[in-house]
Write a structure and sequence with these properties.
single chain, about 900 residues, mainly beta, Maltoporin, Chain A, 2 domains, 22-stranded antiparallel β-barrel, 10 helices
């Protein structure tokens, strides 16, 4: 098997393939093949320079056929998340309670998905924002560049580049079907895929088409998983503690009765509307009780979101001449979901003459000393047939691309492409309160023994609404259908994002030095991005809804770029030493922020063929994305610890159910990053098939574009001005001083800085009539500083960019013509939950999360064109740590079993 390297792929640094061929050799030994067994040439494309046998300084990981199949993951992003360099920031299990549900992105180094540039066959595409759009059945491999590459590929390549390589020459048929379910009987999924490819016109043309379908039922019940109904509890001694099942005493799904200051009377309305005592748990402090019969908003948030996915892809290519090819791609993607989001949690003032207060209710209230108006804290999990907020989305992506590839003269090559993609999003959030109607309906009185809205009780009242329907808020399930139809509604937003990208490059070898040919590449790129709003519902335009009012936003920007890259060999002593230096520069002119440069310089030194040393230093950029510029209002909900003093003067008190509004910012400017990578790889000729590599990296990003967590935003607000309880309007508070909502838009912040090590070892050998492969990868983070605060080793999901110090995976696999088996071990380091201090200025009592080790098992049985496969992920059903909402670091699903059949002919 031949290994042909084009540019950025560094020998085998962090790769499953051993590209440590001798300086002039074009064929690697068979024992140095990748895990994905193949007799075809592996052409690893990286930089714009195309020179066979060149070892570039930037390390690269290749995820081949074998890695793509490990664990039977349902999307490419989730395959990447098993690699230690990636952080599972955005998956169906980490976007469960916001309006990006179901999205799966690539996030290298844990610096945010927007800092990882994702390409399809070397060019930009609109589906990069959600890797569910790429049909896995046609993916040949994935090249992962673990370092800055903006000079070669443009904005966004701050942490690295993910280049998805399709099997463009596929011929024949591929069919598959699969299903899976967790060991608890939930989380079911099923899917199917089909692909067909053929040559035509005597082999000058090629056509292929593919489609896949996936239906994930999701996991909607958090009670089915240990430690997912957890939270931070303020104990009676003033210490904070992570506990299971903390519940609010101010909110109840039948109604919690509170004084006008928010102090609880310890009384609730039972489901039937009668008053009873609050169902306290074993410990109660302040407004929280541990256990008992109360509710926490996170009781209702999904563990993983359900979705249905359909992908279609077609490609045609034709060799016009022996040196000129034209090609065209078309793809279709649709992702839909429809599920309960979380319930609204309003409070309402109840007057003593409320129409739905029975005489028994009044007597009980009087006995408890409640003789006037009181506040009712309600969990609205009984509204209409869906019982709570219902999120429904439809994301559709249409994309087409056309291009030319060719050669001329003595080794010169060129390519050009144009891509147009459109993402159309239609999302609704139903069962929201229409605030004015809800308040009017709750405030009802008896007129002639019939409930009537107070505003209609007096004919002289100026704000009569004859359509007002009284609302019985007491108990659970007592709101009438007429009241739901009148006082509740939904927001809807339809928006379209468009990408037009065009690029062309030329590469060749214009002359030689004493050590070999000099490679150059030059080219130009341009792209236009635009977002428009097609529809916003009338209720949102009137700001009438209680949780999410959609807003019409839109805008566009464009960028025009030119780049050049050169590789110069300086020393080449056959079998002894080979030294190359490499440099690249790119100038980008943005319509929003003007011109900016990115560049890189580096080199490789190969010693006696076996040892490769490499270094690269780069200046990389990331311009604001269309989402960061023009995102419409998004809504999340979360728990925070309020550093500002409450009405009693207490500080650092936990607070639940805070609504956090996000959005874009048109005043953003580009990020600027500097990356240093130093490393080497060793492939001893006396142990064929063994490859070792270690790389040190440091990434320093200024002018960072990001949002922070609600907790971090509160901390920053308090540090800036402890007397401004609204933080300049960022925080909205209720009359009792508690936080109702926060506004947290994208901003240019100070600095991110991370340093770490990437380590890999792989070995492959013949065993009987098959091949045995070992591979181990690890990532160690020395620090990840967010505005100077090191968050490495902080592993709680409520801390921005929380990152374990160590992540690793090790795989042993055997494969022959009849059977395949693999055993993988994934390790995630432990750490502190967070660094938040309680009222006593002490850390959380049980602030340490232990490490987790997961074992995955895969089997394949082959019979001619048929392959029967099965997988068990998290074989020993390792429990997650305390997870109040989500965790990007640990498995919350538990043991998951999947299997299916593949047919190739």
């Amino acid at each position: 098997m031949k290994i042909v390297q084009l540019g950025w792929l560094a020998s085998t640094a962090l790769t499953a393939i051993a590209c440590h061929s001798p300086a002039h050799a074009q064929t690697a030994p068979e024992t140095a093949a990748p895990l994905a067994v193949s007799d075809e040439d592996i052409v690893v494309t990286g930089s714009r320079i195309q020179r066979s046998g060149f070892d570039a300084p930037t390390p690269t990981t290749v995820i081949g056929e074998a890695e793509l199949a490990l664990g039977n993951r349902p999307s490419i992003a989730q395959v990447l998340n098993d690699t230690p360099q990636f952080r599972p920031t955005s998956t169906p299990t980490t976007t469960t309670g916001n309006t990006s549900s179901g999205v799966s992105t690539a996030d290298m180094r844990g610096l945010g998905p927007v800092r990882t540039l994702t390409l399809l066959d070397g060019h930009r595409f609109s589906g990069a924002a959600d890797l569910n759009t790429v049909p896995q059945s046609l993916v040949k491999r994935i090249d992962v560049v673990t370092g800055g590459a903006s000079a070669a590929w443009g904005s966004g390549a701050v942490a690295g580049v993910v280049n998805i390589i399709l099997d463009d020459d596929f011929t024949g048929w591929r069919l598959g079907a699969q299903t899976g379910v967790s060991s608890r009987g939930d989380g079911a999924r099923y899917g199917a895929d089909i692909a067909w490819g053929t040559d035509f016109a005597g082999g000058r043309g090629h056509f292929m088409v593919a489609a896949d379908y996936m239906n994930e039922r999701g996991i909607l019940n958090r009670k089915s998983r240990p430690q997912l109904e957890s939270g931070v509890f303020l104990r009676p001694d003033g210490r904070l503690e992570l506990v299971n099942d903390p519940n609010s005493t101010q909110l109840y799904n039948g109604g919690s009765i509170l004084g006008l200051t928010g102090a609880p009377y310890n009384l609730v309305f039972n489901p039937d509307g009668n008053i009873g005592g609050f169902p306290f748990g074993e410990v109660t402090q302040g407004v929280t009780t541990v256990g008992g019969g109360g509710q926490n908003i996170y009781d209702y948030v999904a563990v993983s979101t359900p979705y249905e996915r359909i992908n279609g892809f077609a490609r045609a290519s034709y060799d016009i001449t022996d040196s000129l090819k034209i090609w065209a791609n078309f793809s279709y993607h649709r992702m839909t979901g429809n599920y309960g989001f979380f319930p609204e949690t309003p409070t309402a003032v109840i007057m003593p003459d409320n129409a739905f207060l029975t005489q028994q209710n009044r007597d009980q209230l009087a006995a408890a000393g409640v003789t006037g108006p009181f506040i009712l804290g309600r969990v609205l999990d009984d509204v209409g047939p869906d019982k709570m907020l219902k999120f429904k989305f439809n994301r559709r992506n249409l994309e087409g691309a056309i291009g030319l590839e060719g050669t001329f003269g003595n080794g010169w090559s060129y390519n050009a492409y144009y891509d147009h993609g459109e993402i159309r999003i239609n999302q609704r959030l139903n069962n929201q309160r229409i605030k004015a109607r809800f308040n009017a309906g709750v405030d009802s009185v008896l007129v002639n023994n019939a409930p009537v809205c107070r505003i209609n009780a007096d004919a002289s009242t100026a704000n009569d609404d004859p359509n007002c329907v009284p609302i019985n808020l007491f108990g659970n399930g007592n709101i009438s259908d007429d009241a739901v139809a009148w006082a509740f509604g939904g927001s809807q937003l339809i928006s379209t994002t468009k990408l037009d990208a065009v690029g062309a490059s030329l590469s060749g070898q214009p002359f030689s030095t004493w050590a070999g040919a000099v490679d150059i590449a030059v080219g130009a790129d341009a792209r236009w991005e635009k977002q428009t709003t097609n529809y916003v519902d009338p209720l949102s335009l009137a700001n009438a809804l209680g949780t999410l009012n959609s807003s019409a936003t839109g805008g566009s920007f464009n960028v025009k770029e030119a780049f050049a890259e050169v590789n110069v060999p300086l020393i080449d002593v056959d079998g002894t030493v080979k030294l190359d230096i490499n440099g690249a520069a790119r100038y980008s002119d943005y319509s929003t922020s003007g011109g900016i440069w990115s560049w890189k310089t580096g080199g490789t030194l190969r010693v006696v063929n076996d040892l490769l040393l490499r270094a690269v230093y780069s200046r990389d950029i990331r311009s604001p994305s269309i989402t960061e510029y023009f995102l419409t209002r998004s809504t999340n909900i979360g728990n925070v610890i309020d550093p500002f003093p409450d009405a009693s003067g207490a500080v650092n008190t936990p607070q639940a159910n805070v609504v956090v509004y996000g959005g874009g910012n048109k005043n953003l400017t580009p990020e600027i990053s500097h990356t240093l990578t130093l490393g080497g790889s060793y492939s001893p000729h006396y142990i064929p098939g063994l490859n070792l590599s270690v790389d040190y990296y440091e990434i320093d990003i200024d002018n960072v574009i990001t949002t922070v967590t609600a907790q971090d935003l509160l901390r920053q607000c308090y540090a800036a001005n402890p007397n401004d309880r609204t933080c300049g309007g960022v925080i909205t508070r209720l009359p009792n001083g508690s936080i109702e909502s926060m506004t947290n838009t994208y901003r240019n912040l100070a600095n991110y800085n991370t340093t770490g090590l990437d380590i890999e070892a792989s070995y492959r050998m013949a065993l009987g009539n098959g091949k045995l492969t070992f591979r181990a990868l690890a990532n160690h983070v020395f620090h990840l500083k967010i505005n100077g605060t090191d968050v490495s080793g902080i592993v709680g999901g409520e801390t921005a960019f929380s990152t374990p110090k160590w992540r690793g995976s090790a795989t042993v696999a055997f494969d022959n013509d009849d059977i395949g088996a693999n055993l993988r071990v994934r390790y995630v380091d432990g750490g502190v939950y967070n660094t938040q201090l309680g009222p006593t200025q002490e850390a959380i009592v049980n602030n340490r999360n232990g490490s987790r080790t997961y074992v995955d098992l895969g089997l394949q049985f082959k019979a001619g064109p048929f392959t029967l496969f099965g997988n068990v992920n998290n074989l020993f059903d390792v429990d997650p740590p305390f997870t109040p909402y989500i965790t990007p670091n640990y498995d919350v699903i538990g043991r998951y079993v999947s299997g299916g059949v593949k047919l190739n002919f």
